[in-house]
Amino acid sequence: MSKRRPPEPLDFFIWTVEDVGLWLEEINLGGYRQVFEENGVNGEYLESLSTFTTEQILRFIRRCHMKWGDFITLCKELRRIKVACLKGEQEVRRPWWAPACLSVVFVRVAKRNRQSRVVSLKLEP
């Protein structure tokens, strides 16, 4: 497997399954990488965790064979990313899929719309 750079936290909700795996390695939960890949856990799925019911959370934990403490760590790291996005602490970069000629435009628009991109994320205490 090639060594890729960890994904940009600002764009965690558009992470691919591979991006999620790299992020799991970065937060010391790499042992779950394979099972997350097998279950197709991408950034959109991670974002939706905050809206899960208790039953759905327990089903997710069982399906991924997660320890409860590791699930708490996962949620804390997701929250840390969301809060950093809201505070504007994340660097904005052109996404891999955008043409280079649009990078200046993308960064300018992303900075202007940073809060509108993240406000929809549910932040629990």
From TrEMBL:
Q: Which domain of life is it from?
A: Eukaryota
Q: Which Gene3D superfamilies match?
A: Transcription Factor, Ets-1
Write down the InterPro entries for this protein, in alphabetical order.
Answer: SAM (IPR001660), SAM/pointed_sf (IPR013761)
Residue stretches making up the SAM domain: 15-57
Signal peptide (from-to): none
Transmembrane portions of the chain: none
| SUPFAM superfamilies in the record | SAM/Pointed domain (SSF47769)
Matches recorded under PANTHER family: STERILE ALPHA MOTIF (SAM) DOMAIN-CONTAINING PROTEIN
Q: What is this protein called?
A: SAM domain-containing protein
In its UniProt entry, the species of origin is given as Rhynchospora tenuis
